[in-house]
Amino acid sequence: MPQYTLWISARKDSGTRWFLGALALVVIVVPILNQVVSPASAFHLSAYGLTLVGKYLCYALLALSVDLIWGYCGILSLGQAAFFSLGGYAMGMYLMREIGPRGVYGDPVLPDFMVFLNWKSLPWFWHGFNHFPFALLMMMLAPGALALAFGWLAFRSRVTGVYLSIITQALTYALMLAFFRNDMGFGGNNGFTDFKDILGFDLHSDKVRVVLLVITAGTLAASYLACRMIVASRAGRVIRAIRDAESRTRFLGYRVESYKLWVFVFSAVLAGIAGALYVPQIGIINPSEFSPINSIETVIWVAVGGRGTLYGAALGAVLVNYAKTYFTSAFPEAWYYGLGALFIFVTLFLPRGIIGLFTGRVKKQGATARQLRIQAERTERSRE
Amino acid sequence: MSAHDKTLFIEEVTVSFDGFKALNNLTLRIEPGELRCIIGPNGAGKTTMMDVVTGKTRPDSGTVRFGAKLNLLGMSEPEIAQAGIGRKFQKPTVFEQLTVFENLELALAGNKSFLHTLFARTTPAQQNRIYQVLEIIALEEHHGSEGRILSHGQKQWLEIGMLLMQEPELLLVDEPVAGMTPQEIERTAELLQSLAGEHSVVVVEHDMDFVRSIAKRVTVLHEGRVIAEGNMDQVQNDPRVIEVYLGA
Known about the structure:
The complex is a heterodimer of chains A (384) and B (248). Chain A is an all-alpha fold. Chain A has one domain (2-290, 309-314). Chain A contains 15 helices and 4 strands. Chain A is globular and about 75 Å long. Chain B is an alpha/beta fold and 248 residues long. Chain B has a single domain (8-246), classed as P-loop containing nucleotide triphosphate hydrolases (Rossmann fold, 3-Layer(aba) Sandwich). Chain B is built from 10 helices and 10 strands. In chain B, the strands form 2 sheets. A 6-stranded mixed β-sheet of chain B has the order 6-7-8-3-9-10, sandwiched between helices. A 4-stranded antiparallel β-sheet of chain B has the order 2-1-4-5, with helices on one face. In chain B, a hairpin with a 2-residue loop joins β1 and β2 (20-30). Classes of the chains: A mainly alpha (384), B alpha/beta (248). At the A-B interface, α1, α9, α10, α11 and α15 of A face α2, α3, α4 and α5 of B.
């Protein structure tokens, strides 16, 4: 019953309607432009374009995870790039095992980089990754477990604010350095690439890429609804209460640490799924994905789109990355200056992001919609 | 007649910050259903005493018990809150981005684990309780307003309302009338007096007129210990209290 009412209220929420509508449009139009429209036509979407759209959707999912933890719970996690990369590496390990004997060195079990390093057998943590379900589990489990351990220590010690941002950043950086090392067993600075297929389907075929894109869009929609359900629940209001007055929440009897931990872990799992969807579409994962700048860029997407709305984060991710795709080819050296300036501009003049330009009025109505319903229910009861 | 029978025992509690003794062997006892006012000059340890009882500050020595069984010193803030001790802060602290209704809803007594609140629905009985409290704190009209747009006095009341929602056995109220108009102060006095009996209420306040209007029993703190206790007249005529307040 509660889920049902949440679903109803989600449908009544105009931002959600726009968001899901736009996703549905992408799922319908993009495959047509790629598969049906002839390559000669100006409207044809190339394999490159297809990959770009897929990438934007993965980033939108990553932005969603940042918005949940930052926009709603007030925790500026700079560890999201790490969770994203771990999910990506888990997927990459499966894709590497899937290559099998088709590698350059033709070893039936060992990926090329291990043969190159003269390794004789598979490291223990590579076992099982030839099974897709196991890899799928690890894509969520690896980032989730890291977030659980790290968050448990950090929140229990009441590390908050900028200190938490710094230690999550340090965590990401430490992982990057570790993954750069060859003897970690993750391909060193080259990471994983030259993937062949996923579950037997050729990754270089446009059809398979279209399917991956549709799966990404579906995952994004499902994750969005899951996040929406969380933030619309009473737990969601507790999370916002923690953001605005942490110790007040504690004195009301809520275990603030446990709430933060749940949200942090969930957000890490979402980021991990985003990374896992990203890797087969982009075709490579390497330690540069752990770069601290990636976490910061994600924060900028969310700020630009509008934090604390979920769909704003997704919108910001798509817009900023579209701009990045354009500007890094047009004015490559100016991009980071532009991004920095954008962040400053948004912080100063658009504290609620692009979404804030449209929803000033709508949001107020939304805040009272639930109240109106409750009041109506009460009047009805008193009449009985 | 009190709805509960737990006495708050604070025994020989000492808290020091960098050598400064905020509480110095403080011993205090609050009977069930009592309305107790605690006064004292700045730095007397009033707020620190509340911090100790609610689990925010751990004392260097001493014991704090609630009723015969509960040792509060071994408990975290949420555990103490769940055990029936509610607290209003000196600076009114409400959830600014949530509506008045939602502020009260979050304060509802009950299971407060994440998995429970994720699926919790506010039952009709709970809604009625919220509207009841809204009536008590005179914020019915504002039930849909976000906390941030309330006036200072309204925020104070909302926070008291949140305490009521918790159905605590003991309320610790830190400076409830700071920044209130005389009419608001009068209403607050009535409200706190109506709460006593069913709940134990401890009020820390600087406003002497207010204390006189509500207090049956007053405790004076100075430099972290009790220097006088009794009714308002006794306390006011105590030579040590006069010395502390008027300066030697």
